């Protein structure tokens, strides 16, 4: 599968993964801090959080979720007390000096603050400093102690069990944003998830749908050892807390950028509005834009013996099939049915019209783009089996062996259950997201080196016995070894025995 020329993919470092490596000096320092400073800090942080709870609970009594009542003197006192307590809590956690650049706009000027990058639960610091509202899942309200503090800032709750949740959330954001400053500002993290700050992923449109001015806010953690990043692959929540509390000092910078006033075109196109604000914030942060979204995280973090090697073309494919409406309803049953129909075609090539008919869809620009991804020879014809393999790969990226089994069902001989070497190469090209796979090393390592076919069970057993199967037995265009055709002994001067 190839990437289209119309949309070059910009995917560098995986933003959903974070790895920590310590020097011996750092390990010794963490060890000493773990038995001295860490217990004291943890005790103080816990005490201050518990101390904040009665203030938040009292201030929340009798409040309406739909109307903002006048800020009485006693509520102002409680609000000030909470800010002081929360700032003391962060101070005890090692965030001694928080540098603030720029000036926060008034709610009447910019009802929405867009904050990025979102990389840690320590991003709650600017929330507690401003007491702005946030958008959060309803389940957050039931978290002991912290849930009461969240409820105090009058968040916009997302009901994930409600199918109409997205529309209701957007409507509530619009209602508050258009109140003329009556409601507190809403602080929104438009990335929608935590990343490692290596780049800004695609923004969700929620903050930009109202079409009102927003104030971009950028966060920086300029510490030498990054212990604050908490994302999908890497240290867990408690390990992050432990390591951060073991640092002598945790610097943080909050910068309020100038208010961004949308143009008429941006007001009518929230996606354009969001992307232009993202570009502005990326420039301020001096980080690249990454064409990944929250929905792409599973593909970029695929697991298994045949995990995706290069996910650039598969990410583009995934976005296109979402637009076609084929991705949302893709279940194992649907994939099996598509594979059964594809097998019946016995490798017959499909034009774009035939492709549209296969899925009972009209011929559109998006469908034509998807079709072109699999047009290997540039003759306007594709093998539908390639599409089914790609769809299975992006639908269940961590179940690569199930995708491989599905592919064998479409290609295997009815008599022997075997797949030809060149057909298996095509399967791997799509599953791994690579080009020009060559399998001589694999087939020469089998019991019968002259064999040019293989069954699913034989391949499965071989992969189980060789955990580094992709790196050791496949050759492809972007392989670290590059190409090494012919006998395996010619690769890097090393001889590869079938028993290795």
Automatic annotation (TrEMBL):
GO MF entry, a single one: lysophosphatidic acid acyltransferase activity
Residue intervals passing through the bilayer: 30-57
Listed Pfam families: Acyltransferase
Domain Phospholipid/glycerol acyltransferase: residue ranges: 112-222
Chief location category: membrane
Gene3D superfamilies given in the database record: EF-hand (1.10.238.10)
GO biological process: phospholipid biosynthetic process
GO CC annotation terms, alphabetical: endoplasmic reticulum; membrane
Domain of life of the native organism: Eukaryota
Localisation: Membrane
UniProt KW keywords: Acyltransferase, Lipid biosynthesis, Lipid metabolism, Membrane, Phospholipid biosynthesis, Phospholipid metabolism, Transferase, Transmembrane, Transmembrane helix
This protein's pathway: Lipid metabolism; phospholipid metabolism; Phospholipid metabolism
Family: Belongs to the 1-acyl-sn-glycerol-3-phosphate acyltransferase family.
Protein name: Lysophosphatidylcholine acyltransferase 1
Species of provenance: Scomber scombrus
């Amino acid at each position: 599968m190839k990437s289209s020329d119309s949309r070059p993919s910009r995917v560098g470092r995986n933003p959903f993964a974070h790895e920590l490596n310590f020097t011996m000096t750092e390990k010794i320092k963490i060890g000493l801090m773990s038995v001295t400073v860490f217990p004291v800090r943890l005790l103080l942080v816990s005490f201050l959080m518990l101390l904040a709870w009665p203030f938040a609970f009292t201030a929340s009594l009798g409040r309406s979720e739909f109307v903002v009542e006048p800020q009485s003197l006693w509520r102002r006192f409680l609000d000030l007390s909470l800010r002081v307590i929360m700032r003391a809590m962060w101070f005890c956690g090692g965030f001694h000096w928080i540098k603030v650049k720029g000036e926060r706009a008034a709610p009447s000027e910019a009802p929405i603050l867009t904050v990025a990058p979102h990389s840690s639960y320590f991003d709650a610091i600017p929330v507690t400093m401003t007491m702005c509202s946030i958008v959060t899942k309803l389940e957050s309200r039931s978290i002991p102690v912290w849930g009461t503090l969240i409820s105090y800032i009058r968040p916009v709750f997302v009901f994930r069990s409600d199918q109409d949740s997205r529309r209701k959330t957007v409507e509530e954001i619009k209602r508050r944003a258009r109140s003329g400053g009556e409601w507190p500002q809403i602080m929104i993290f438009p990335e929608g998830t935590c990343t490692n700050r290596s780049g800004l992923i695609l923004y969700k449109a929620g903050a930009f749908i109202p079409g009102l001015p927003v104030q971009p806010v950028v966060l920086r953690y300029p510490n030498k050892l990054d212990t604050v990043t908490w994302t999908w692959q890497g240290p867990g929540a408690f390990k992050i807390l432990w390591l951060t509390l073991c640092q002598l000092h945790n610097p943080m910078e909050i910068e309020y950028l100038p208010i961004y006033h949308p143009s008429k075109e941006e007001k009518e196109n929230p996606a354009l509005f969001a992307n232009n604000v993202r570009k502005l914030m990326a420039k301020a942060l001096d980080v690249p834009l990454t064409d990944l979204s929250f929905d792409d995280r599973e593909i970029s973090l695929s697991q298994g013996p045949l995990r995706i090697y290069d996910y650039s073309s598969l990410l583009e494919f995934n976005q296109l099939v979402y637009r076609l409406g084929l991705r949302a309803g893709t279940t194992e049953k649907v994939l099996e049915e598509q594979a059964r129909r594809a097998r019946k075609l016995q490798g017959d090539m499909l034009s774009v019209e035939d492709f549209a008919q296969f899925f009972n869809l009209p011929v559109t620009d998006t469908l034509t783009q998807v079709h072109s991804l699999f047009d290997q020879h540039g003759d306007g014809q594709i093998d539908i089996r390639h599409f089914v393999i790609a769809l299975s790969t992006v639908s269940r990226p961590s179940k690569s062996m199930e995708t491989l089994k599905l592919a064998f069902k479409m290609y295997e001989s009815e008599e022997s259950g075997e797949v030809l070497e060149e057909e298996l190469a095509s399967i791997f090209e799509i599953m791994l997201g690579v080009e020009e796979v060559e399998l001589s090393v694999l087939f020469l390592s089998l019991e019968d080196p002259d064999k040019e076919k293989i069954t699913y069970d034989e391949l499965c057993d071989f992969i189980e016995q060789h955990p580094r199967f992709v790196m050791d037995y496949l050759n492809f265009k972007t392989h670290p070894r590059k190409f090494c055709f012919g006998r395996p002994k010619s690769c890097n001067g090393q001889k590869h025995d079938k028993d290795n």
